Batch of 4 targets.
Target 1
Amino acid sequence: MRLTLPILSAAVLIFALLPAHSRPLLPSSEVTFSKACRDRDTDPERLIQLCEAALEEGTGSLSQRLDAMDALAWAYSNIGKDAQAQQLFEEMLALAPRSVDAMNGLGWIAWDADVFDDAVVHFEKALKVTYSAESLAGAASSRYGADLADLEETLVALEAAHAIDPDYNWPLREMGWILQRADQHSRAEAAFRRNLEIDAEDINGLLGLSRALRDQDQYEDALEVINRALELRPGELVHLYERGLNLYYLDRDRVALGVAKQIVESYPEEDEGYVLMARVLHARGQGDAAVNVLQNYVGDIGRSRWANYWLVEVLQWNDRHAEALTVLEQIETDYDPASYHYDDMYESAIELKDLARARIAVDAMLAQDSSDAEVVYYDAVLLAHDRQFDRAETRAQEAVSLGYAKDDMDDFFGVLAESGEFVRMIQFRVRLNDAAKASQD
């Protein structure tokens, strides 16, 4: 059954890889390797030793052997060795073609790798053998990830999985994460709270609840929740970062900076501490220091795309747009651009009046989504810069009809004013206001 967390931090993996020292594998002569393996009551590395010894003995029934293989596969998965886990699940299927554990195991391996189409196949095969909560939950989440089901269909299926086994909390937690990613934070909060009613010490569920609360600006409550997670698992990177963010949003900059330094000291190769430190320093009015933190960090080879985009953000906060564009160019060379890449490019290019680069950015965004109201507005601004005023007005009107706020058009009207098009500007404002009144009548 799916019990591992979707987010495994470096600390968890390091713990899993600690040597087993010299204590004997078996607690007593009355316990066999097979039983100790199938009990699964130890850390992953030690469990691997126990299960491999059990399988080498070759004793026990087929059912016991399959159980040992399943335990070994999950032990491998829990230390990041999914290839070995997948091989074991495939061997289980060869021995027992109707093994639901093997089918579900292959489903979870594919799910963890975001190969949702494959995951759907494995989970739905398992459902044809036994209609279980785990298989139904895995299939529901995978179908959503593969764009084979919409949000509400997925939530219904996850509720059904939970109804099959009310003690199985994973469907509720997954509902929370799906709703959180869909920006339905109050519904996500409710799902995470239901999950925690079943397992109050679910670390991943506490993280999810903290994020859902933070995204509703409930920073004090979010901080209380994430502090609970840190009590249960001290020093966890993802939870320290979440704590730091809540402190940052509460304007407790001194404490947040302390958390950032703690993360950098404990996890010097991870992005979160440097990003948090830069954000806090900027909030304290130390913009240059904030930039320096991230410039020094991303200057090393192999830093993540995420850290580079945060450098762009901090440079833009400090009106260092030429440098921001340079970093964006480097990102295009080193990584696949993020969905917001060209939005960042437009922001800096338009500030520098680099209209050629701004046009590249807008055309790229229009290719992604030609009906995005904000991008259509950007197009109108650039057309006005090019003195194509009639087309610019048409595009600006389209942007408003798509949902762009008519009160947020200062850039557009500013270009008209700079171009001496005062009469046009006044007439267009009047038309926008008349259209707004007509829509209210």
Target 2
Amino acid sequence: MHLEPIVSFAILLAIILIVPLIFERLKLPGILGLLLTGVLLGPNGLQVLDNDSETMRLLSGIGLVYLLFMAGLE
């Protein structure tokens, strides 16, 4: 499914902010909610988010740089 970049970003932002809170209220780890949501919405699930789009490449690159930065601080 092809979505505009701002819609993809809004969906990702909502997932990142809401899903962990829901899972923590259920006494489950928040990361588990993110993983399950990724499987559900990703290319092997409902295909809501396309990992081949330019937006996803940009956001994954930013996430990777952030992860490496945080690992470097440790």
Target 3
Amino acid sequence: MQSGSNVIGTFVSQKISKIRWIEEQYVEGNSFLTGSWENAENSIKLWTHKFSEDGTDTSPQEKAEILFPGDVTELLLLRNNSENFVASSSTGEVRQYRISRRPDLPPKIIEVLSWKSLHKWKFEPASCTAIDVYDGDIVSVGEDGRINLLTANQKDVICSIKDADSCTITCVCFLKHNEILTGNLRGQMRSWDVRCPQKDSNIESKFMKNGDQTGTTCITHHPTQRHIVLAGHEDGAIAIWDLRLASYPVSILTAHQYTINELKFHPDRPNKLLSCSYGGELWHWDAERLGGGDGLGWVNSESSKQKLQVSVLISGLHKPINTIDINREKVVCGCDNEAVYLMNNVFA
């Protein structure tokens, strides 16, 4: 493995599909969650890790585990909450969990609620491919082309759009509390008003990167300017969109050689972006020199590409890096080689 910064790798005996830091309100968080896939028995685990002050490597410690049905396809903390999170499954369901922490007992992951059979074919379940959260609202999309709107701590499905798409919806993100953006296997992206009950009336716009129907694999919006959206694709390209001009991308970045699995903006420094790929690479994109301290440099013209700095944090794993997350100066990623990797001072 080659890396551009100090990396702590830990073997965890599971292929990791999703990894998420648990944010703390006033201090730097030291805990994260992992979800597994393609294992005989999948699970969600809680870990803690502190980088030592003397620079010696310390491995993360497993603190709690709960078994999970099917592959974990997404893990997300509910907004402004360090205890409650939701997870989606390849069996077509979504589950809500709570992390119980008491000073006199070890931490525990407790299931709070489950929404079963959200995604299904006629005689068998369909994968819930992605979810996103906005405060207490949850949206799920799936292999069956369905969209579901849920609310945390409430069993009933708020809204369901059956046959929203004729092919697999691969990714989704909230733009506003009532508006979502989806991407599908053909590379089409659609924005939806989830307040409208009928399929035809809630499609606000639809667009795609180009005419080659390259699948959209992930979507992320700018942390403060939600009309700026970056989409990762099966061909390794990153399309940059200004949804106010959504008929075509502002720019297309030739990025990884293989499929992009996730894109992550730094939540407090939107000029910083991470991408990870099926080819086992983790890259850091720095748009500082594009101008705009608020991260608006991403929508500068094509001529700004040469000012975009790209550094390699990890390469040469020869197994997919499926998932990444950022916590201030720290980065963590999960891979198909049954390991997690932690880095500190990445953005210093």
Target 4
Amino acid sequence: MFLSIAFITAIILGAARVVFVTLLAIVSKFRERRAVFDESYRPPVSVVIAAFNEEKVIVRTIRAVLANLYEPLDIIVVDDGSKDDTSGEVMRAFGNDPRIRLLRQENAGKAAALNRGMAEVSGELIIALDADTLFAKDTIPKLVRHFADPVVGAVAGNVKVGNRINPLTYWQSIEYVTSQNLDRRAYAAINAVTVVPGAVGAWRRLAIAQAGGYTTDTMAEDMDLTWRIRRIGWRIETDSAALGYTEAPDSFVALFRQRFRWAFGTLQCLWKHRRAVGRYGWFGRVMLPSLWLFQVVFQVLSPLVDVQILWTLSNVVRAYLRGRLDQDWQPFPQAMSSLYLVGFMYGFFFVVELLGSIVAYRLDREDPRVLVWLFWQRFLYRQLMYAVLLKSLKTALSGIRTGWGKLDRKGTVNLLHRPPSPRKRGEGPHVRPLAREAGRGCREAAVRRRHLSELQP
């Protein structure tokens, strides 16, 4: 009975969250369409890149920033004690460019490196950029335009998986669109953005200073800074058109390490900001409680869903086998009715998730056909996240300090994954993005290929 109640409760809560977030995301999209920006607003922007063993990607990252053609702009690269030739790559490619400065320091961690770089900037706005991320050619102007509103303290962009090279990275691309980006878009409608990601986001320098800069007491420094800025009264916006392409882990081992860092960092932030629950408007009354419920409690109880399914199936098999041996044994129909209930509830939840995912893909102007992977992506991810959460909870309860767990870069990000422009009324059905562009004369495809070639070392 307990398993059945927990199973039904988990399904209902999960479906309700999907509906709530999807509706908020649609509201946010309408707000985005109605927004009017002052395109003449172009304050000085400083891009700070913390780099540790990034020789394979650092040059392309800097070139992608420069390809935005935004002025005034300067870039500060902080080499955080790299053991490879990160600094040499920067100096050989940009040693004569006055817009780019290279700082070196002993390895002190990403937060310390970002703080070191920010101490050197004088611009009004700061972009703290992950060293593996490639910006689209219009990302910086799209981030900057929101800061014309003086109450905006930070802007989160739209993170895309740029190395869709195997099923695992394709599954992560589904997660980025249907979970992370949809959540950010939704919570922006109520000024409760969960995180300004390091892959693509901008900050007002004054807001960072008032919040005390990056801290080293969590493994989710971007999330912690986002919450501290929100708690002191700044508004945090998102811009789904400001694209950043990140390198996702392409193996289960690397993915586990990354998700452990994310899950453990989220737990640290939730505990650090526990007194904010119920305060600061929607941020403390909706967003923080939902993280506690769905990122912690729900994840702990989620295995009960699989246990209930297995338990029901085992009851059906046992009832069937006993009925074959004992003709007077009648519980088989009852066991089948339980199986029907479990199947109906699980199918209901999957349909709700699928519809929410289709909406997310439409909002992001991505091809939803990749959602044929959704069932397996959700099923396998759930097993992975069980292990990640258990390790995170064990580490948190034991008080053991853990390292950042940096991923090895492979430099496989491809800007050609950029989603197509929206169709005009009367155009035919969606086809492959590059094929449609070829039909239009390859103008946009040629621009992207030229932009990509410019990023090659």
